[in-house]
Amino acid sequence: MRRKNWNAFGLMAAMVLVAMAMGNAFDNARWGANYFPNVEFTDQDGHKVRFYDDLLKNKIVAINLIYTHCVDACPLETARLVQVQRKLADRMGKEIFFYSITIDPKRDTPEVLKAYAEKYHAGPGWLFLTGKQEDIDLVSKKLGLYTAPDPNNRDGHRPSLMIGNEATGQWVRESATDNPSFLSMMMTTFMTTGTGRPAAANTKNYAEVEPLNLDQGQYLFATRCSACHTIGHGDKIGPDLLGITNVRDRGWLARMIQAPDKLLEERDPIAVELFARYKQVIMPNQRLSDEDTNKIIDFLKSQSTAPGTGGALEQKAGVVKAEAATASR
Fold first, then answer.
1. pLDDT tens string 55-96
2. CA distances (Å), 234 to each of 16, 116, 297, 324, in order?
3. CA quadruple 251, 253, 258, 263: dihedral, nearest 10
4. Which of 35, 88, 115, 209 qualifies as a FRET site for 319, CA 20 to 30 Å off?
5. What is the CA radius of gyration of the chain?
6. How many whole angstroms separate alpha carbon 223 and alpha carbon 177?
7. Contacts of 75 (CB under 8 A, 6+ apart)
8. pTM given for the model
9. What is the reported pLDDT for 44?
């Protein structure tokens, strides 16, 4: 009798699980054509596209909001997505698609968006989109990315990224400035499992894990600067910073890190020259504190004097000094 009761209980549990699965399938349907508007957008090449039919249907996507004259979050989130794009490699444009939608369609014409995409080296599978303001607002609200106008927030929006698999109904919102390895993992997880969770991996006992010794300056550089700069590995979106503390005044470096937009407004000759040379890419003002700024500068200094950087440092310093002399003329 007890076995029969357990068998009955097991059958009931299985039926509940099936019902839950069916419910999830029905829930997924509401994130399809009946939920997302099929409004028309124009991409950076002037092509007309429908938001649901052409951009979302049966695709894995990452969508964010930008505008090209933004001086705070947009430059960093665009540069960060360039890093993610590189990690995804040939999956971009085939299995995973990026869409950056402007929130300033009056100024961000297809031509302006195309120039912006080229500055940041956006590749295949990444569209920069504009359209009617009311359609942009509607899509932003449906995606959960909309931010009401706030006079105290000059950036105009939050640097959020909506990652979704339309076919499975899986959607998640992340920070668009998050770690690129994490973001690429999220996107490939959606693609390979459809669950939004990483596959199981072999793990060690906690007692076997070595303690993590992370320099705060290194962490700040990795999270705030590495999307655009390297230290000793060549120019990226911005200049290589190897040896920068040897050829730039610490006070100037602090101002450049904390308020690059103000230096440009003041027509600082070095800031203006760098802005022109690196395709007028806007260095974001990230509202860093004096303490965090000093930690970044100290880390840059430690890397420039690290063993094995001598020859490269001397060569780099010579180049930077010559550039500084040119900019001051």
1. 999 999 999 999 998 877 888 889 999 999 999 999 999 999
2. 58, 22, 19, 18
3. 90
4. 115
5. 24
6. 8
7. 228, 281, 282, 283, 284
8. 0.64
9. 97
